[in-house]
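Thread: quick sanity check before group meeting

JM: Hey all, I'm pulling together slides for Thursday and realized we never actually wrote out the predicted structure for the chain we discussed last week. Dropping the sequence here so it's in one place. If anyone has concerns about the input, flag it before I start.
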Amino acid sequence: MITPDARGARRLQLREEARRNYDQLRQVDLQSRPGEHSLHRAARIENALKGVVGAGLRRRGYHAHALAFPGYGGPGWVRVLGRVLLGRDEPVAPDGGGTPASLRGWRNFLTVPVAEHEVTVRIGGHERVLTTDRGGYLDQVVDVDLPPGEHELTLTVGTEEREARPEEVVESVEDDTEGGAELAPRAAQRHTGSARVVVVGPQPQLGLLSDIDDTVVVTRLPRPLIAAWNSFVIDERARVPVNGMAELYQQFVEENPGSPVVYLSTGAWNAAPTLVRFLERSGYPEGPLLLTDWGPTNTGWFRDGSAHKRGSLARLAQELPQVTWLLVGDDGQHDPGLYAEFVAAAPERVAAVGIRRLTPAEQLLAGGHPLASPDRPVDSDVPWVSGDNGYELMHRWYRAGVLRRG
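JM (edit): ok, ran it. Output follows.
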C-alpha cells in the first residue's frame, strides 16, 4: 500500500525530473549537426525533444521494441517495413490469447523512436542487418529470392550500443520501485516483432489496392478531425467497418488466389498495429499497409497526404509491373482525382475502379461537396463504378465483368 508520504515523495520526484528535462531542452543546440544540414528546423526540434524524453524513459527501464509491418515483394526482392520504439511489454487481453489488450488510440502516439539502430531481419532462412532512420523506421528493399506466397518476417533488436548524445545522457535517479536507483539489466533485453510478407510471382495477375478511411472503416468526421478522433479517442474495438467491403475483398481473393491486397492511407504508422487487428477482426484479407509518418518532415512541419498516395501508386506500378490493379476508394476528397490521374497515365495497369459513394452528410463532414461528381476520366475503357457500400460495388463489378459469378 502506498502511503501519503510516499505519494508526496513521488510527486516531488516527478516535478524534479520535469524540471531537469526542461533545462536539458533549453540547453540543446538546434544548429545542424553533421549529416543534418538538410533537416528542417521542425525536424531538429523533434529530434531534440525525443532525445530528452527518450533519456527519461530509459532511466525508467524502457528499451528498444521492434515492430514489423506487413510488407510485399517480387522475384528476387522484399520490401521490409518496420519501426523501433522505446517501450515495455504490451498489456495482454484477459482471454490470454496473446493479443494486446484493446487500448484508447492516443496511446499509439505516445511513442519515442530509436534512430540509427541496428535491426536483424530474418525471412525465409535469410538474414540481413538494417539500420533505422531518424524516425525509427525501416523501409528498405532487401535482395532475397523467395517463392511466391506469404512468408514470415521477423525483426530483432537488442541493447542500444551507440554512444548517447549530450542531451541523452542517462543519469541515475531514484525510482518508485523497491531498490531505488538500480536500472534494469539492459544487456540481456532483446525484442522481436513479426509480420507477414506477400511475395508476388512474375506471372501477370490482378491486385487490389484500397483506401482505408471511409472505404473500409466508417469515420463520419471532418478530415482534420479523423486523426484526432479515430487515432486518439475511440477504443479500437468500437470502429465500424463499411458495410459489404470485407465481403467484396474476400470475393476478389477467392477468385484470384495469391493476388496481392494492399491498403494505402494517409494515416500514421503509429496506428498500424491497431489497423492490422481491425482488418482481421472485420474479415478483411491480410495485406501490406502503406501509411505515412506522423510529425515534421525533413523539409517542413506537415506531410502532403496526396503526394504520399500518388508516390505509392507510382512505386507499386514500377516495382510490380506484372500486376494490374483494382483501385478502391471513396469520393470524400482525393481518391477519385488520384485514381483518374493514374488511369490517364497508365490505363493498361488498371483493371477497374470502385468508388464508395458517401452520403451528403458524410460528404460535408469529409470536406467535400454533397453534390460533387466523381473525377471520372473521359474516354477511358477502364470500368469505373460507384456505390453506397461494398455490396453495390460488387454487383456493378459483376455487371462490368470485373468479377466472375460463382
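AS: nice. The domain at 4-197 is CATH 2.60.40.10 (Immunoglobulin-like). Confidence is low (pLDDT under 50) at residues 94-98, 160-188.
JM: adding both to the slides.
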